[in-house]
Amino acid sequence: MPDGTTRRPRIEASLQPTQGCGGSQNVSQVTQEHE
Fold first, then answer.
1. Cβ 30 vs Cβ 16: under 8 Å
2. Contact at 8 Å (CB) between 18 and 34?
3. Rounded distance between C-alpha atoms, residue 15 and residue 34, angstroms
4. Residue 33 — very low, low, confident or very high, per pLDDT cuts 50/70/90?
5. What DSSP designation does 20 have?
6. Can you say whether residue 20 is alpha, beta or left, with left for phi > 0 and alpha for psi between -120 and 50 degrees?
7. pLDDT of residue 24
8. Considering just the CA atoms, what is the radius of gyration of the chain in Å?
């Protein structure tokens, strides 16, 4: 359970600054396009 909780905030914190003010679905698409 520690893996899921640590992975969630880490990914959100890494995508939050990239998107700025968006949601989780938008971040997923933006991350795939960027990569």
1. no
2. yes
3. 11
4. low
5. S
6. left
7. 54
8. 10
Structure-token pair, residue 1: 């359970």
**Residue tagged 């939050």 (tokens):** 16
- Reference 12, options 3, 22, 2; nearest CA is 22
Tell me how far apart the alpha carbons of residues 33 and 6 are, in angstroms, rounded to a whole number.
24
Per-residue pLDDT reduced to its tens digit, 1-27: 555 555 556 666 555 555 555 555 555
Quote the tokens at residue 19: 């998107």
Measured CA to CA, the distance from residue 22 to residue 35 in angstroms comes to 18
* Token pair 């880490």 in the structure block, residue: 10
